[in-house]
Design a protein that fits this description.
With 122 residues, the chain is mainly alpha-helical. The protein has a domain at 7-89: Arc Repressor Mutant, subunit A. The chain has helices at 7-19, 25-32, 36-48, 72-115, and strands at residues 52-58, 64-70.
Length: 122
């Protein structure tokens, strides 16, 4: 069984490492609300695709850390993923707007119905 990293996760990881390449996997996981194993899996997949390169860097406490660098191919992939992400989010937004309007209409109809005088049944 092969695990597939969803586009949203890839996009979010690429965006975060572009902004902060020296973030640890633990920091990425905490920021994105993803498991550490999920971040590791995603980064390995991005490295395998050639979207990210891993570099060793020295931290301030003289320990070795990794820096995750977007490759030119990774920048192109992030651009494509950004466009798809925006398209999905805009569709979700439009659907949510319709649902909100529908709920508002339902509330107004119930309010109107509840405020309508009724004949008492004897």
């Amino acid at each position: 069984m092969t695990k597939v990293v969803d586009e949203d996760t890839q996009f979010r990881v690429l965006r975060l490492i572009e902004e902060s390449p020296e973030s640890s996997q633990r920091e990425i996981a905490g920021t994105l609300g993803i498991s550490l194993g999920g971040v590791n899996y995603c980064l390995r997949a991005l490295v395998d695709k050639g979207h990210v390169k891993v570099r060793n860097v020295r931290a301030s406490n003289s320990k070795l850390r990794y820096a995750y660098i977007l490759t030119p191919k990774g920048i192109v992939a992030k651009t494509v993923l950004t466009a798809r992400f925006l398209k999905r989010k805009m569709a979700e937004y439009e659907a949510l707007k319709l649902e909100i309007e529908s709920l508002k209409t339902g509330i107004e109809l119930r309010r109107d119905w509840a405020s309508t005088p009724r004949r008492k049944v004897r």
